[in-house]
Amino acid sequence: MEDLVCSWSPKLIVDLIKSIAWPVVVLLIGFSFRTRIFGAARSFFSKNTVSEISATVSGVSAKFVTAKQTTEVLESASTNAANLPKSMSIEAIRARHEQHKTEFSEELYQSIIKHASSLDINNDEKIEILAREVSFYQTIIRYIDINKILFRSQYNLFYSINSNGGQINKEDANIFFEATKNKNKEAFSDWDWIKYIAYPVSNSLIYEDNNFYKLTELGRSYLAFMSKNPQLIDELAKL
Q1: Residue ranges in the chain whose pLDDT is less than 70
Q2: Domain annotation covers residue 5
Q3: CA–CA separation, 145 vs 137, rounded Å?
Q4: CA-CA distances (angstroms) from residue 15 to 8, 89, 112, 144?
Q5: Of 1, 150, 203, 207, which residue is least crowded by CB atoms under 10 Å?
Q6: What is the pTM of this model?
Q7: Mind telling me which residue stretches traverse the membrane in this protein (predicted)?
Q8: Does the residue 1 lie in any domain?
Q9: For 170-204, what is each residue's pLDDT tens digit?
Q10: Exposed e or buried b for every residue in 90-99, given b needs 16+ CB within 10 A?
Q11: Closest CA to 150 of 4, 8, 1
């Protein structure tokens, strides 16, 4: 049975961690994954019922994936747990550190401190380097979050837009959607262009500009990331 939903695999996690050098990334991933795994489990059972697992093999997976993207749009699309809230005070940050601290995180923390202390650079340079590494981590988490929801056809649309100078007119965009819908009639039976484009727009991957849809900075960066990791493209939901 063909799996139509993007899933975490040990190889994917290893490949992503290998692409980032500093131990700080491992520490942050440890914090994030623990809460995300439990959160994802709670989210799944709150959004899906047994009645959704009752049709044909192709129908089950397709309907589940489309429902998942619709639900994602309704939630706070701009909120990302990987990002440190700009309004968070130092007291709140320290409280969060205490909340997520474990023996293993402390071991990694001490390793990071030791590594940073061994560098022959001043504190400002250390902060700059660590901040850069954290920014890499946050962008990768954002791209992975997108991959868990995005359809392969939507990725193909982004690629087409990028190859066409970063924009596509609305008429061509609708033609693209209708062709996609015809190939997946059951999955997209109650979908129109607005519903199809809702997730990419609400997550700042593309935006409307007069008679065109254009890629955002995030959209272009996402495509650049995927082009460097083509194995991830095939793991997108095959719709």
Answers
A1: 1-68, 70-87
A2: no
A3: 12
A4: 12, 34, 21, 12
A5: 1
A6: 0.63
A7: 12-33
A8: no
A9: 999 999 999 999 999 999 989 999 999 999 999 99
A10: eeeeeeeeee
A11: 4
